[in-house]
UniProtKB/TrEMBL annotation:
Source organism of the structure: Enterococcus casseliflavus (Enterococcus flavescens)
Family classification: Belongs to the ROK (NagC/XylR) family.
Gene3D superfamilies named in the record: 3.30.420.40
GO molecular function per UniProt: ATP binding; glucokinase activity
SUPFAM superfamilies per the UniProt record, alphabetical: Actin-like ATPase domain
Keywords associated with the record: ATP-binding, Kinase, Nucleotide-binding, Transferase
InterPro entries noted in UniProt: ATPase_NBD, ROK, ROK_cs, ROK_glcA
Enzymatic class: transferase
The name this protein goes by in its record: Glucokinase
PROSITE patterns on file: ROK
Length: 317
């Protein structure tokens, strides 16, 4: 009889669930809307009710070995709580692990969403099971996860892997949501790329001036068509991202640095430019051994990662 891990990707709009075999095959997946009203008080009860409905047979037969969850906010791995997840309505610590373990009587493991996605790519994605992997996800911000010798690097304060807040020397000094300025995510995230374009387009003849609402997807599309300003923005963002990846590679020399998220869906048009800057800044021995890759799991990384978290934490425990 087959056993499973349950992976949960808790997001501000939807919560996705995936039943994953111990070998890493996705057996079943579903999702529910995330109800963030009333300070998010319904989120965990809704998750529990959905699991009990969808997996009644597996729970009864005790075929689920544990549950893993990736979520935004500040994760306290010791106490199993999450706080400062403002997009969920959670300002104070939420006792998530206690709620799940008391209700379902299964071991429960909690991780930051970017770290969880890093584990997913390592296990079943572009990481190919390698021991040393660094993952960057480029969306509205920039998240990061660092895995060394098969272990997540979370740091003494739990904030390890905040690659999006690398300081980057640049002429713009855009403010970051963290309170600093010139963080990497202010330049290479979807919002950062739009900011770059906005800073130039009022003084430049460009097709971007015909767009009432710019998005990073529009900028990439116009760059591929040959718009000079759009191409300048893409090249500048790629330069910053490649430089950051080069710094990571020279510091850690991992097997792979994997780039995912919505911005990375620009595929080779972006990655070729990032790779050129990446290789230019690498120490020769690093250039030969650390590979720059595009993520392959897409949004499913948020399911496979928490499932893998159960696999490694159960083994460790």
């Amino acid at each position: 009889m087959e056993n499973y891990y349950l992976g949960i990707d808790l997001g501000g709009t939807t919560t996705k669930f995936g039943l994953v075999t111990t070998e890493g095959r996705l057996k079943k997946e579903w999702w529910i809307p995330t109800d963030c009203r009333q300070n998010g008080t319904r989120i965990i009860p809704d998750c529990l009710a959905s699991i009990q409905k969808e997996l009644a047979s597996e729970l009864k037969q005790k075929r689920i070995l544990g549950i893993g969850m990736g979520c935004p906010g500040a994760v306290d791995r010791v106490h199993g709580t999450v706080s400062n997840a403002f997009n969920l309505g959670w300002t104070h610590a939420q006792p998530i692990r206690a709620a799940f373990e008391q209700s379902l009587c299964l071991p429960f493991f909690l991780e930051n969403d970017a770290n969880a996605a890093a584990l997913g790519e390592k296990w079943q994605g572009s990481g190919d099971g390698e021991k040393d992997v660094v993952f960057l996800t480029l969306g509205t911000g920039v998240g990061g996860g660092v895995i060394l010798n098969d272990q997540l690097v979370t740091g003494v304060g739990g904030a390890g892997g905040e690659i999006g807040h690398f300081p980057v020397t640049n002429p713009h000094s855009f403010d970051c949501s963290c309170g600093n300025s010139s963080c990497l995510e202010t330049l290479v995230s979807a919002t950062g790329i739009v900011k770059l374009a906005e800073s130039y387009r009022l003084t430049t003849a460009t097709t971007l001036n015909d767009c009432p609402k710019l998005t990073s997807a529009i900028i990439f599309a116009e760059a591929e068509k040959g718009d000079l300003l759009a191409l300048k923005v893409v090249n500048e963002a790629a330069n910053y991202l490649g430089q950051a990846c080069s710094m990571i590679a020279n510091l850690l020399n991992p097997h792979s640095i994997i780039i995912g998220g919505g911005v990375a869906e620009a595929k080779d048009f972006l990655m070729d430019r990032v790779r050129a800057r990446f290789e230019q800044g690498n120490f020769p021995a690093v250039r030969k051994t650390t590979k720059l890759k595009r993520a392959s799991l897409g949004k499913d990384a948020g399911i496979f990662g928490p499932a893998y978290l159960v696999k490694i934490r159960n083994t460790a425990g």
